[in-house]
């Protein structure tokens, strides 16, 4: 099972537990016994003949609350047959004048729906419940002799109505944004750049089962209380459900200035051409076919990809791994951790993790916190331009096999097993590809597609495996091979370039591995003018071919054995040269 599948499984289990708790909560509140502190009396019994709205409207201590209910359109909602519990703040216990200036939508979400929940929640004896309000905010309802909800004291309790219960409060239940909602507070935090992009993925759909139906007009059902389910595709794309109230995330949120600066940096890795050639390598390698690919709107594609990449590495689940330390981290403190895992399971080690929160300001939300920053202090290779490692044995990367005569395809086999302890180095995923010659007179070869390439410079490596990698029962000789790379130039034309061995002064010198170990062979640097990431199933390619003549047959092994191919961003190579102890996530290699 992959790390991502494990993560999804854990998330689904957590979601199931939340649902179970919700059903349990409904079951617990169905009891009808009353605490002696709140004995039922004749006035309460009389109130049962009236609706919630009628009881609130006729209560002289709730005139301000009743007025706001009317402005929000909830006088009709609380007159319907659906059952609610209302926690109503008494007059002059909250800022009525300020709330009266709110728009209808804001008044509904931040005040009215923050004081109403579906179903009955009577007060009786010990109360210890989690209550989801109509705005889906999670509030803790608790007490024994005295009671509170969301930290606000109950003034009087259990005013029974025909469609629910009213409890009065000595103040307003605080409304706290969740992380998703915080992206709307542009005027407060100057984050409208990320807000505009994130909300462009919003979708709203009427939830008929939760909505309160009204009369039918002209054959169409109307609703007194319309409940919409809000969805955003970025939740699932990034595995960051920042709208869920029972979650606990940390999100790094760039200000507009930070967004603009970071976007300029990210953009250079995603240059596209309106038209380019794609070389399709067939099974024999002798019949190569060129296809012309056209991109309808290059600027739109680039902007979309850049925005997605820019927002894809900002989320951390505070409940997992060393991420738990984020819950206690305060503004101005230096994060001390081994590593952090992003919600897409990108991993960054302590040095880079601490940089993310430098000079950032923490703002607490109902489901975690946001960290406002004037600069996204991410190294490009930890996010937008990562090292690319291609496992040679993965069939999806193998374009074709070739040989010098081109008369038949080579027989590729994938070998796996326990690595011979006598062979230094580490075999990635305990598997490699083996390409033998079809005859004693041919040199085998293989072509690999190189997916996810950005428009940048990479140092290119291939990891070569010796014959005795799993057993001593093989004669060990070095491989001698050439490397040819094909990719699109600035004009959109596919070029094939034979790579020169950077460690040799000879112009046509082949590459030779150290057969005494698993050897990472440096093939040279390659600059890709165009990004392939985001274009679909179009890739550059690398052809590796054995180069052993009959004259030197005894010195070299014609069978090729490759573990993986590595495209390491040149920026990372340069940084490693200056910081040899630097740790970064390089997958399984």
Compile the SSE list and pairings.
Elements: H1 3-28, H2 42-47, H3 52-57, H4 63-72, H5 74-77, E1 84-89, H6 96-99, H7 104-112, E2 116-118, E3 127-132, E4 138-143, E5 147-149, E6 152-161, E7 164-169, H8 179-182, H9 186-189, H10 192-199, E8 202-206, E9 212-217, E10 220-225, E11 228-232, H11 233-238, E12 249-254, H12 256-267, E13 275-280, E14 289-294, H13 298-311, E15 315-317, E16 339-341, E17 347-349, H14 350-356, E18 361-365, E19 368-373, E20 388-391, E21 398-403, E22 413-416, E23 431-435, E24 444-449, E25 457-464, E26 480-488, E27 494-498, E28 511-512, E29 519-527, E30 541-546, E31 560-569, H15 570-578
Parallel strand pairs: 1-7, 12-19
Antiparallel strand pairs: 1-2, 3-4, 4-5, 5-6, 6-7, 8-11, 9-10, 12-15, 13-14, 16-17, 18-19, 20-31, 21-24, 22-23, 23-31, 24-30, 25-29, 25-31, 26-27, 26-28, 26-30
